[in-house]
Amino acid sequence: MAAVLGPIELPGWAWERAEVRRALRTRDMGAVFRLAQQYAGASQSRIAAAVGMTQARVNEIINGRREVSRLDVYERIADGFRMPDDARHLLGLAASREKRSGGAAFDLAAFPEVVRVYATQSSAAEEIQQQVREASELDVLAVRGLGLIGLNDSLLRAFLPREQSGKGLRVRVLLLDPNSETLVQRAAEIGESAASLADGVRLTEARLRELADSCDIGVWRYRMLPTWRLMRTDSTLFVGAFDAGWEGHESAMYKVVETPHGPLFRGFRRMFEAIIDAAQRAV
Question: What is the number of domains present in the chain?
Answer without folding.
Answer: 2
